[in-house]
Amino acid sequence: xxxxVPKEIKNNENRVALTPAGVAEFKKHGHTVYIQSTAGxxxxxxxxxxxxxxxxxLPTIEEIYGIAEMIIKVKEPIASEYNLIKKDQLLFTYFHxxxxxxxxHAMIKxxxxxxxxxxxxxTDRSLPLLVPMSEVAGRMAIQEGAKYxxxxxxxxGILLGGIxxxxxxKVLVLGGGIVGTQAAxxxxxxxxxVVIMDVSLPRLRYLSDIMPQNVVTIMSNExxxxxxxxxxxxxxxxVLIPGAKAPHLITRDxxxxxxxxxxxxxxxxxxxxxxxxxxxxxxxNPTFIIDDVVHYCVxxxxxxxxxxxxxxxxxxxxxxxxxxxxxxxxxxxxxxEELKKGLNVVDGKVVYKxxxxxxxxxxxxxxxxx
Length: 370
Prior knowledge:
The protein is α/β, with parallel strands linked by helices and 370 residues long. It is built from 13 helices and 15 strands. The strands form two sheets. Strands 3-2-1-4-5-6-14-15 form an eight-stranded mixed β-sheet, sandwiched between helices. A seven-stranded mixed β-sheet has the order 9-8-7-10-11-13-12, sandwiched between helices.
């Protein structure tokens, strides 16, 4: 198969979808790999390393899309890429269709095969291609939140861990999945007082067992959330419903009950956000303020630490990408239930229910396209 890796062109997206080591693996299986020039530089990989691994460099994104049977990316295509995508071309990347109606309709129109990292799902319901970036985003949420609590950045002027004789900050984490767990660990490690909420009692029991003493678990419901946000200094939104829009756990009216300078970090913003007032921002302009509450809503947080993120992501995606290349997407998805669940839009049909529901589109069973 002919594999194409374009350079990411989303604002401040420095990750790359394939490392030189990944190129070598594809070559070992007899595939041809084209990399757009300088695609890996943001992550610390030089063109020479890709050439040495066996890739062919092409200077433009148009040439990459023009020649490849499978495009491997990190982030969803943006508007300038839509018309480059060919009918029946396989795109393997993060899509987050439920947060973008424009992207959904564009991929339907292009007739592409859209296999989304974020909905590849194991039998235990874990999301193997979302986990590494969720780990990065969860840890970064505290790193960034601590920074924006500083007074020059319009925060409360609170040091997350406090000092002897001065209490630490109060951190509220909504959601006890991968993002929430990592965020709570980081906040606790810095000495903050942490509350983590989830709707699953078994999950809360597990978290209560593994977390240090400065982390408290509380059942997530509207009453408890309204009470907790009044005291919180930093709030992390870490709720995910695979392939679907995140629910709004904090609504616009709740902001007025928070103290001025509170910081909210909505990691779920690429799935619509779990804080109603959050809209996607970029690393260039990461925050905005509503009702004296600082909102940090960067949709590609791991892009700020591209070396770590690229290695973490490609460790997870490469085995699946090799299967797709070796067998072709139809056979690979028919034989692997995990990959089958990654199919979202195929030949103009929406085959993932969460996406169809998000935009009131006709849902067709994935079996109709295999």
